[in-house]
Amino acid sequence: MRSASSRAVKSCAAAPLGQIPSPGPRSATERIVRREYLRSECLGASRRGELAGELYDIYSETLHGYTPAAFDELVFGTPRVRLALFYGARDELAGFAFAAIDRIEHGGRIHAVMGGGGFFRSHYRGGPLASLFILGQGIRARLREPHTPLAYLTRATTPAAYRRLAVTMPTIYPSRRHQTPVDVEALVRALSPRRHYIQVNENPWVVRSAAPHDPSRLQRLDHDPDVRFYLDLNPGFAKGESLLVWVRADMADLASGFARAMRAVNPVNLR
């Protein structure tokens, strides 16, 4: 019979490095070729500090406004954080994604609410891979606790981040397609203080966050209806204001989102 300690050691064993199928060359970006999975509870203090510095460097290529300490709280502030590290062909750390789950009691029920995000160096296209990782964590949580309500709450710091959620997931709030349910807004209001979100104005969905280094490069998306909807709600994103986004995470939503993210990683040419 294995002891509890032996099971703990096994659970913290390094995950195998997965190879990532290439969708074909892209002239403007470098390829991500492998990934590594980590658990925050398995990192020693020295390794965690070293890793936090590496991740902060990647984050700082895209956004500014967080100190290293604030960034550490963003990524590691919840127990049992799951991390995915993505590497380029020259073994460069290209980017990362992270996910964790908060639990909150509301309306007489316990709700599980995921948080997380992903950041990549500017010469890599990693958004779909980060989506796959976070969706995979959601599917695992749903399978472990099929009767616990599950959702994903994140800060969309840019119109592009919001658009990715809108095109990947069947149901998000706020949305140009759906009215936000009263119970969803109540959950967001209840959870925001626990995550130390600071409301900017009377709109509970707009909070302070980091700001993009070069918001002008996002202007090519201005014609997109989801981008226009985002900008109507959050015109101050370039100043460090984010739009909170609540993503419904029923199993059907997660499966649909996973399939869409997989197609973004490996697009099929139809001729």
Could you describe the 3D structure shown?
The strands form two sheets. Strands 1, 2, 4, 5, 6, 7, 8, 9 and 11 form a nine-stranded mixed sheet that branches. Strands 3-10 form a two-stranded antiparallel ribbon. The longest helix is centred in the N-terminal third of the chain and has 18 residues, at 45-62. The N and C termini lie far apart (57 Å). The chain is built from eight helices and eleven strands. The chain has one domain (34-265): Aminopeptidase, CATH 3.40.630. Helix 4 packs antiparallel against helix 8 and helix 5 packs across helix 7. Residues 1-10 and 22-27 have low confidence and may be disordered. 36% of the residues lie in helices and 25% in strands. The protein has 271 residues and is an alpha+beta fold.
Write the layout of secondary structure elements.
Layout lengths: L3 H8 L6 E2 L12 E8 L5 H18 E2 L3 H9 L5 E7 L4 E14 L2 E12 L6 H18 L5 E7 L2 H10 L3 E2 L8 H10 L14 E3 L2 E2 L12 H9 L7 E8 L2 H15 L6
Parallel strand pairs: 6-7
Antiparallel strand pairs: 1-2, 2-4, 3-10, 4-5, 5-6, 7-11, 8-11, 9-11
Helix pairs in contact: 4-8, 5-7
Q: Write the element-wise H/E pattern from the N-terminal end onward.
A: HEEHEHEEEHEHEHEEHEH
What's the overall average pLDDT, rounded? 88
- Estimated radius of gyration: 19 Å
CATH architecture: 3-Layer(aba) Sandwich
List unreliable stretches of 5+ residues.
1-10, 22-27
The CATH topology assignment is: Aminopeptidase
Report the principal-axis shape.
globular
Termini separation: 57 Å
Within CATH, the superfamily carries the name: Gcn5-related N-acetyltransferase (GNAT)
Let me know the number of strands.
Answer: 11
Classified by CATH, the class is Alpha Beta
Q: In what range is the share of β-strand residues?
A: 15-25%
Q: Estimate the helix proportion, in percent.
A: 25-40%
How many individual helices?
Answer: 8
The chain-level structural class is alpha+beta
Largest pleated sheet: 9 strands, mixed
Count of spatially separate domains: 1
